[in-house]
Structures are given as C-alpha cells and as structure tokens.
Amino acid sequence: MDKPLQLMQLARVFPDKLVSKLKKKTHTEDYINHSVITQRLLQVCGPFDWDVEVIFNGEGKPVAAKGTLIVNVDGKQVKVSGIGTDQNNAGKDDGDIIKEMESDALKRAAMRVGVGLHLWAQDQYFLFAQMLKVHEMTAEDVG
After folding, report:
1. 13 backbone dihedrals φ, ψ, rounded to 5°
2. Cα 132 vs. chain centroid, distance in angstroms?
3. How far apart are CA 46 and CA 68, in angstroms?
4. Count of CB atoms situated within 10 Å of the CB of 36
5. Burial readout 3-35 (b: 16 or more C-beta within 10 A, e: otherwise)
6. Is residue 16 a contact partner of residue 34, using CB atoms and an 8 Å limit?
7. Does residue 40 sit in helix, strand or coil?
8. Contact yes or no for 107/34 (Cβ under 8 A)
9. Alpha-carbon distance 7 to 142, whole Å?
10. Residue 28 pLDDT > 90
11. What one-character-per-residue DSSP string does 84-107 give?
C-alpha cells in the first residue's frame, strides 16, 4: 500500500502559534487564518484551483459563498466544496462581507482534505495519529 504522504502532511496538526481564538456570544472558537491554510495547500500540493459562487438573498445582499477547491493529493485529483456564511458583519460593506465568506468557505473546503481538521474535531481528532500508526511512520517521517 502506498503511503498517503501528502494527505498526512495536509492533516498534520498546526502548531499552537498559528491557532488564534475567536470570541463568540456563547463560546470561544479556535481558528487558523485563511492565509495559513492557503500556505499549507501550496506547500504540500502546489497550485490548486479555487472557484467561488456568491449566494444572494431576495434583497440582493450576500448571505453565503460556496467555494470549490480542486487539488491533487497523492496523485488523485480531489474536488471538494465548502460554504462560508456571514459571521456578524454588521456595518461592513458587501465587498468585505463577501471576502470573509470566501475565506470561511476556503477553510471549510480545505478541511475536507485534512487541513485544519483538528480544529473542528477537537478532542475527537485521530486522523494524523492513525495514519502514522497504519503506515508505521513517525511525525518526523512525514516532514
């Protein structure tokens, strides 16, 4: 069985210094800036395709962005999507709202190929450790 080295590199946990906190009304969430997500994708997979469709409500206001990521991972072309929504952007213009929704969509799409998945899974994250075990590798072997 070939070792899914790129998938393992994508799924590797980000160091704490790259994880930020976002205070919500009822809780605090960990997040990683979209530029860091983009760097991981480029570092591991090289150039990728990214397409965004903005979804508008009946009044013509942007309410969501659907992003589609096409990337080659371990020799296989993978196409995944993510939805970004308005994250309390009161007072911002439509352009800034769309950029934030696109950023959210990118992070959600990248999560589907392992990037930052540990932030969503929290204590239930097992993917990276399990792949190391199955392929009899160490984190250092992954690079």
Report:
1. -65, 135
2. 21
3. 16
4. 17
5. ebbbbbbbbbbbeeeebeeeeeeeeeeebbebe
6. no
7. helix
8. yes
9. 10
10. no
11. EE--S-TT--HHHHHHHHHHHHHH
At 35-87, the pLDDT tens digits run 999 999 999 999 999 999 999 999 999 999 999 999 999 999 999 999 999 77
Please state which CATH class domain 14-142 belongs to: alpha beta
pTM above 0.85, yes or no: yes
Residue partners of 104: CB distance under 8 A and separation at least 6: 65, 82, 83, 84, 85, 87
Q: Using CA atoms, how far apart are residues 117 and 122, in angstroms rounded to an integer?
A: 8
How close are the terminal C-alpha atoms of the chain, in Å?
A: 19
Amino acid at 21: K
Backbone phi and psi for residue 132, each to the nearest 5 degrees, phi listed first: -60, -45
The string over 56-83, giving b where at least 16 C-beta atoms fall within 10 Å of a residue's C-beta and e elsewhere, is eeeeeebebbbbebebebbeeeeebebe
Question: Among 15, 78, 16, which Cα is nearest to 41's?
Answer: 78
Instruction: Read off the amino acid at residue 5.
Output: L
